[in-house]
């Protein structure tokens, strides 16, 4: 029985790392713009297909496939902010919230992306990117782990560390944090808020695309694979929607919980588990595990 | 006076002649002296077009073949094609349009169960014969209703029953693990599989009902491994089927045969590529309703005909699935004769039984039977080579009902 649990945990951590990356992309946008990005899942899907096209048409190695997908979706996210959200924001009436319109715009983007990708002939069938690493699985004690799964964890951890370094150590990262905390004050000290918002959408989209390329060899690609964003929302809520470390922990916990529930409650409860956990968290600790108290209100 | 009597006699005689040999009475819409109008629909665009495009083209081809031979009792078949995109709302709209705007005699369509079943209420209310194209259609044919005919490639009940029988008879399974989805398809699969296992004395040691959008099959496969079965059956859809095969190999279970139902392996070569691990397919089988491999000698006749009609298109794996429904329709139309009505057509469909030359068994309907087909064959597949397993397996229509 211990072996079953260990195996379920190991597999859950791998899936959870991908949930965490997608959750990070949602939380970054939310923290900086107050917008919940309902197109996050479709950007994951676009990332996966961008990776596939890079492999089929350009024959790129994996490291460049990640870069290609990230750059393509960075441009997509930044342009979406510049062309759509900026216009929506510009029509705001003083005293009325424009957030609903912005969120609806993200829903619109999700449909555009899903519909658009269906005209690509390669999307007619379920497809999969080849694994990053092949070969015999690795045994950690009695637990079997695929080389591919280790690569997923490594890439996810590297991306998370790079994100932390960017926000903590670079001037642009600090400017982004300042913009997210108080855009008006940031503008007063000369930070180009509009460009910062574009950058945030670009980074978030690139993160989602990296998650898409990580998922593509594991979970298979279809134009509907964006529904995975629901699990990323769950991860973000578990960890705390305003907390970057929280959503990493939330993602990993969610992956493990799904497998443990599948093992002890039943396989058909796997899809219900995230929502049961969300309700539990919202009832007991609405701010999430690492959400903390809101110390200051935005102005 | 004599002339008047002669004239009256002549008129009566002419009237009698007209009644006996004159043009047929076309009581129902879509039938004229020279034409029978059939509404044909399937997913022609979108992600699920692969399930419907070629079957619809094949049905059209069959109608053209019949027309070439003179039609049916002097009437040519004319089709109106619509795209339902495999969605229930589109399917209902399409069927209503075909019936009320185009005024077709009957509707022949549907490649996806949910979409085909959604049209059932309307056709039943309007008393329009509805012959599904290649949808499994369990919800539309159980319980049987007068105007709906379907399951030309077999229902999911047939899939469940035949795959279990194959596992027990051919693979000598005594302890079976069964993986199915927790939806209507899975319910149908499991209902008959369970009954067949009970009847044949096999023990089902693990039943895993998984969500169709499952991301990680670790938990169900761990439980299957712990149950130590001697055959594993999966009736999962394509994406989860690939995950199951991958995890089955990862957990070192390949000494135990894995049998996958047809819905999870629409194109075997793509399936093998997606699994990406030769070890997963060393002991792998899949089911099919056809009488041969999709490109086998018995299917070649249809493939070559299709290429004559559509030289620019390579037929997909589901192409021939569209033929039996069109064949059943033309047989029933033939049987009715010149005086064609919808009610007579339905009566004729109920008495239809034939070998399509496409499927492994007979296509048949009866007064209390609306699922047209109940057999499967099984194929061993190692990623490259397909080997037909001996015999065909049939559901008796009773197990699990």
Describe this structure in words.
The complex is a heterodimer of chains A (299) and B (401). Chain A has 299 residues and is an all-alpha fold. In chain A, 70% of the residues lie in helices and 2% in strands. Chain A has a domain at 25-226. In chain A, a hairpin with a 2-residue loop joins strand 1 and strand 2. In chain A, helix 5 runs antiparallel to helix 8 and helix 9 (229-239) runs parallel beside helix 11 (273-284). The mean pLDDT of chain A is 87. Chain B is α/β, with parallel strands linked by helices and 401 residues long. Helices cover 42% and strands 17% of the residues of chain B. Chain B has 14 helices and 15 strands. In chain B, strands 6, 7, 8, 9, 10, 13, 14 and 15 form an 8-stranded mixed beta sheet that branches. Chain B is elongated and about 65 Å long. Chains A and B meet through helix 1 and helix 10 of A and strand 7, helix 9, helix 10 and helix 11 of B.
Topology:
The complex is a heterodimer of chains A (299) and B (401).
Chain A: H1 2-33, H2 40-58, H3 62-90, H4 99-117, E1 138-140, E2 143-145, H5 147-169, H6 171-181, H7 183-188, H8 193-219, H9 229-239, H10 244-264, H11 273-284
Helix pairs in contact in A: 1-5, 1-8, 1-9, 1-10, 2-3, 2-4, 2-8, 3-4, 3-8, 5-6, 5-8, 6-8, 9-10, 9-11
Chain B: H1 2-21, E1 35-42, H2 49-68, E2 76-83, H3 88-100, E3 106-109, H4 113-118, H5 120-126, E4 130-131, H6 138-141, E5 148-149, H7 156-169, E6 175-181, H8 184-200, E7 203-210, H9 218-227, E8 231-234, H10 238-250, E9 258-260, H11 268-275, E10 284-288, H12 297-309, H13 323-336, H14 342-350, E11 353-354, E12 363-364, E13 375-381, E14 386-388, E15 393-394
Parallel strand pairs in B: 1-2, 1-3, 3-4, 4-5, 6-7, 6-8, 8-9, 9-10
Antiparallel strand pairs in B: 10-13, 11-12, 13-14, 13-15
User: Main sheet of chain A: which strands, in order across?
Assistant: 1-2
Morphology of chain B: elongated
Structural class of chain B: alpha/beta
Termini separation of chain B comes to 74 Å
SSE order of chain A: HHHHEEHHHHHHH
Estimate the mean pLDDT confidence of chain A. 87
Oligomer: heterodimer
Structural class of chain A: mainly alpha
Please, what is the CATH homologous superfamily of the largest domain in chain B? Answer: Response regulator
Mean pLDDT of chain B: 91
Q: How many β-strand stretches of chain B?
A: 15
Largest interface, counted by CB within 8 Å of the partner chain's CB: A-B, 38 and 32 residues
Shape of chain A: globular
